What we know:
There is one protein chain. The chain is an alpha/beta fold. Helices cover 54% and strands 13% of the residues. It has eight helices and five strands. Strands 2-3-1-4-5 form a five-stranded parallel sheet, sandwiched between helices. Helix 4 (104-114) crosses helix 7. The structure holds thymidine-5'-phosphate (TMP). The site of thymidine-5'-phosphate has 13 residues, from helix 4.
Amino acid sequence: MNPAAPGTPARGRFLTFEGIDGAGKSSHLEAAAAWLRERVPEVVVTREPGGTPLAELLREAVLQRPMDALTEVLLVFAARRDHLQQVIEPALARGAVVLCDRFTDATFAYQGGGRGCDTAQLVQLESWVQQGRQPDLTLWFDLPAAVAAARRAAVRAPDRFEAQDEAFFERVRAGYAARAGQWPQRFVRIDSDRPAVAVRADVLEALAAHPGARSR
Ligand code: TMP
């Protein structure tokens, strides 16, 4: 990679991975991080909810404690604010590539689509908390809810979200589709109802093709 010209402010790249539970995004995120580490000086891998000590505490509560949908929204945005301030913004200012396992599209998909929260309120919180920050590239791992459910059943005990029924996950999926329609320039849909090797090839192709992910 070429170093930035003297006097040019460092500017990183913010990449997010999204999809319903069981889409397989987390293992592809590891492969993407390894690929990027060979090409850029700094890669920061993080996740939401989480990524800071405070945000990880909030994650634990959101995933395990019973609460209503608006409380979920407020906790994930509180966690996001801390994560942005402590980790994401400083890393982008250093010029790092930040790879984040879920971000605000998940709130629109799960709390908006899945739980039926008012998306106009989510838009207000998004703008208040993020101050204009959006991912440069979002890889959306898309597959039918029934296929994802079968994959989840094979590997782990469910948390509060994973325990939801197939109809919930089809609404979450529709929530992602709606966000992808609103942000076509940053979303890349990856058909995840295929063998992992084919999905992985698409992930690396998207990273190589997208100016948000290439080394500068
Ligand atoms: P993970 O298991 O992929 O790390 O995601 C944790 C769970 O949190 C997942 O079921 C989706 C959910 N979630 C939301 O409901 N809203 C959000 O804003 C985020 C970031 C995650």
